[in-house]
Design brief:
By secondary structure, the chain is mainly α. Helices cover 61% and strands 1% of the residues. A two-stranded antiparallel sheet has the order 1-2. Helix 8 runs parallel beside helix 18.
Length: 460
């Protein structure tokens, strides 16, 4: 029995690898102009959706948190490029610091607009990469990939991350991931563009470092491609930068993690379940506790289709699931999801509360505020790749409608996010122009102000 099962698994794996290589290396004979048109149309759709998601970001632009107190303030005091090596939260923020530099080329009144417009532009650029024909080996239909891009822009989590330069790194993470797994033949110009984008993304998005091994896929499969060395170099670059940033900025985070949490395999399953349950249920309500326990049904359905379609798309789906898990676990581990604050530790002692329950509560909070954004991007791709089968068009139609119905439920409350508080940014114009002492309030309302003393302004 065991031998027979091993044989079935072995045959399915061999077939899956062969199908992956065939699909990954397939040449599409559409003209490159059609690919560009597909990308530009998706970019425009993405930009429009992101803008409508939070119209005040351009209509009445305000700075958000670190956009003002870190990136803009550092620009006013030091100036670009001297701000590049400054670490914040343990890593470099190349793009937000460049946006701060760019914004200062405009009149003071336009600074928040430049910040937000740049964030929307770069987010739309990044998510629209998935519309390219090079990703047909994951989702064959151009229409479904366009729908996926639109769904990504309508995320139900991380609303504070939308249209802000501070959190544009989440979109760069997704873009770097897509380029790492990009299929099909690439022109020398495509390699050049990918190289530039990935270098910028690596110096902006710390999570992208963990996708470095994926760059080796193209290097080992496209052996006849004389430019494949670019991907090998990007792998080395990402790994080297990752090791450097880990020792300089994040190594102390590991000592606070309760690794015993992972000994119980059911805890790992709960983390996986909670990662997508938050998309369906308002975690602030008691309904989350009532319905969360039933979401194992979705896991079984997902597992069924994963096994059913393994010989056809097993490798693609395994890559997607692996990157989804990385997008969940890495941020919650490094941002304290599996460690207790002093207050939480006292609750455990005084009220005999389970540590595991508090850990799950931390995870839900982290995923909901911002760290669920990248997982949601991959989550938008997964059902179309795992569940749909190219052979049965009628079944695909039914399943596709059901999947879109589920996403319609997820994003039903994601339109028109509540605008930020208007602190009347323009009223501080004269103080900034004359380089006097400034104290400028920004969003969120409880965040510290932008404080710059007269003697701190950089000399022209």
């Amino acid at each position: 029995m065991i031998t027979k099962l091993q044989k079935i698994i072995s045959e399915a794996l061999v077939l899956s690898i062969a199908n992956f290589k065939e699909e990954f290396t397939k040449t599409f004979y559409d003209s490159w102009q059609k690919n560009i048109i597909l990308y530009i149309s998706n970019f425009l759709i993405s930009f429009l959706i992101l803008y409508l998601h939070r119209p005040d970001s351009l209509n009445h632009p305000q700075l958000w948190a670190e956009d003002g107190t870190i990136f803009l303030r550092d620009e006013w005091i030091l100036g670009f490029p001297y701000t590049i090596p400054l670490l914040y939260s343990g890593y470099i923020h190349l793009v937000p610091r460049f946006i701060a530099f760019l914004s200062n080329l405009f009149p003071y009144e336009f600074i928040p607009f430049v910040f937000n417009f740049s964030a929307i532009f770069l987010a739309a650029v990044s998510v629209s990469f998935f519309s390219l024909r090079n990703f047909r080996y994951i989702v064959k239909s151009d229409l479904l990939r366009t729908i996926t891009v639109a769904l990504i822009c309508l995320t139900p989590v991380g609303h504070e991350s939308l249209n802000t330069a501070t959190n544009v790194h989440f979109y760069f993470t997704f873009g770097v991931f897509l380029f790492a797994i990009m299929g099909g033949k690439l022109s020398p110009w495509a390699y050049f563009g990918i190289f530039i984008y990935v270098c910028i993304g690596t110096l902006t998005a710390p999570l992208s470092i963990f996708y470095a091994p994926l760059f080796l896929i193209r290097y080992f499969i496209f052996k006849s491609d004389r430019f494949r060395w670019v991907y090998a170099f990007l792998f080395i670059l990402n790994m080297s930068y990752g090791v450097l940033m880990f020792f300089y900025g994040s190594s102390d985070s590991l000592t606070r993690i309760d690794w015993e949490f992972f000994i119980n395999i059911t805890n790992v399953e709960k983390l996986f379940r909670v990662s997508f349950a938050i998309y369906f249920i308002d975690f602030d309500s008691w309904k989350f506790l009532d319905y969360f326990k039933f979401f194992w049904v979705f896991e079984l359905i997902f597992l069924f289709f994963y096994i059913r379609n393994f010989s056809k798309k097993g490798i693609q789906n395994t890559i997607l699931i692996g990157t989804y898990l990385i997008a969940i676990f890495v941020p919650i581990l490094l941002r304290g999801g599996l460690s207790l604050s002093e207050e939480q530790a006292s609750y455990v002692t005084l009220f005999n509360i389970s540590k595991d329950s508090l850990y799950l509560s931390n995870v839900v909070f982290l995923l909901n505020i911002r760290y669920g954004l990248v997982p949601f991007m991959i989550f938008c791709i997964l059902p179309f790749s795992v569940i749909l089968n190219d052979k049965n068009k009628k079944l695909n139609l039914v399943l596709g409608i059901l999947i879109l119905g589920a996403y319609a439920f997820i994003i039903k409350d994601s339109f028109f996010i509540k605008p930020y508080h208007d602190f009347e940014w323009e009223t501080f114009s004269e103080q900034v122009k004359n380089k006097k002492n400034v104290s400028i309030p920004i969003n969120p309302t409880w965040w510290q102000k932008i404080e710059v003393k007269e003697n701190e302004w950089k000399k022209e």
